[in-house]
Structure formats: structure tokens, C-alpha cells
From TrEMBL:
Family classification: Belongs to the copper transporter (Ctr) (TC 1.A.56) family. SLC31A subfamily.
Name recorded for this polypeptide: Copper transport protein
Residue ranges crossing the lipid bilayer per the database entry: 52-71, 122-139, 145-161
Pfam families membership: Ctr
GO molecular function: copper ion transmembrane transporter activity
Top-rank taxon: Eukaryota
InterPro entries xref list: Cop_transporter (IPR007274)
Major location (coarse): membrane
Transport found in the keyword field: yes
Membrane topology classification: Multi-pass membrane protein
Length: 174
């Protein structure tokens, strides 16, 4: 029994079920490639359809990766500043706490200040992890051009924002 006409029908009607032309679908590579034909970066809406859109997207990826390094720098500066200000606070209620006591209102102690700053540090930490995982997804397009753009963004970001940071990576992703 020949069922080839069923397969032909399924193949020819597949485009209608997908809502569009097969040429417009995102190319989902699971192996390394340099081909950018119908490349989508993380979202279906970020669809590379031309050389110009590839170049603009690669520049955007470089800037995004630089932004990650900027966020890491902001987080480090915040933590350093807060630690210095908390160290300057009195350990307990005393007569020498004045309106000019740095960082917190009169009467707050190092423990309370540490708890408050820990919430901000936790938010910054969560943002860094989210950002790193999103960059990992960008990298996982398995497209060589995009991988290079992520790496260049990390390079330029570190050159601009990593002056006070070890070059040893301490984050699990990106």
C-alpha cells in the first residue's frame, strides 16, 4: 500500500499550519554554524533576514554583553560603598550619633543597615544572574558570528568597567 500521497499532503500543508511561509521560520541550529539565514536570536521577533539586520544585531549583542559587565561593576561599587558606610556606623546606640552620621538616619545600627543593603545586593545579584543566563541563550544560537559578538562585548565591557576586577570569572554562566 502506497502512503506517499499522505506525506506529500502533510509536507505541502505544513506551512499553512505554521501561519506563514517556510522561508520565514526561525532556523533553530543545535550545531555550530556560520550560516545566518533565518537566524532568530532568543525571540522570534529578533529575526535576522538580511546582512544589514545581522550587522545591527551583532552590534546590539556586543552592547548587551557590555551592559552585563557594567551591571557587575555597579554591583561591586555599591557593595564597596555600602560596606564602607556600614563600617562607619556605630555598633550600638551611643551619645555620639548625630545627624551627620553617614548613610542612615540617627539611631540605626550596623546590623539594620546591613540587612537593608543586603536586600539591594540580592536584587542586583538576581539581575546579574538573569542577565548572564539571557546572554547564555544568545550564545546558544550556536552561530559563530553571535558567539564572537558576545565575546567581544565581554572584552569591551571588561575594558571599560572591569578596572577594579580580577579577570578570573566567578559567575557560573556567561
Amino acid at each position: 500500500m502506497d502512503h506517499s500521497h499522505h506525506m506529500e499532503h502533510a509536507a505541502s500543508s505544513h506551512g499553512a499550519h505554521g501561519g506563514g511561509d517556510m522561508g520565514e521560520m526561525c532556523n533553530m541550529n543545535m550545531l555550530f554554524t556560520w550560516d545566518s539565514t533565518n537566524l532568530c536570536i532568543v525571540f522570534r521577533q529578533w529575526h535576522i533576514r538580511s546582512t544589514a539586520s545581522l550587522v545591527v544585531s551583532l552590534v546590539a549583542v556586543v552592547v548587551l554583553a557590555m551592559g552585563y559587565e557594567a551591571l557587575r561593576s555597579v554591583s561591586r561599587r555599591y557593595e564597596t560603598t555600602v560596606n564602607k558606610r556600614i563600617a562607619a556606623l556605630p555598633h550600638e546606640q551611643s551619645e555620639d550619633v548625630t545627624e551627620t552620621t553617614p548613610f542612615l538616619a540617627t539611631g540605626q545600627y550596623q546590623v539594620a543597615a546591613g540587612r537593608n543593603s543586603h536586600v539591594v545586593k540580592a536584587v542586583l545579584y538576581a539581575l546579574q544572574n538573569f542577565y548572564a543566563f539571557m546572554l547564555m541563550l544568545v550564545f546558544m544560537t550556536y552561530n559563530g558570528w553571535v558567539m564572537i559578538a558576545v565575546s567581544l562585548g565581554a572584552l569591551f565591557g571588561y575594558l571599560l568597567f572591569g578596572q577594579s576586577t580580577s579577570s578570573t570569572k566567578d559567575n557560573a554562566c556567561h
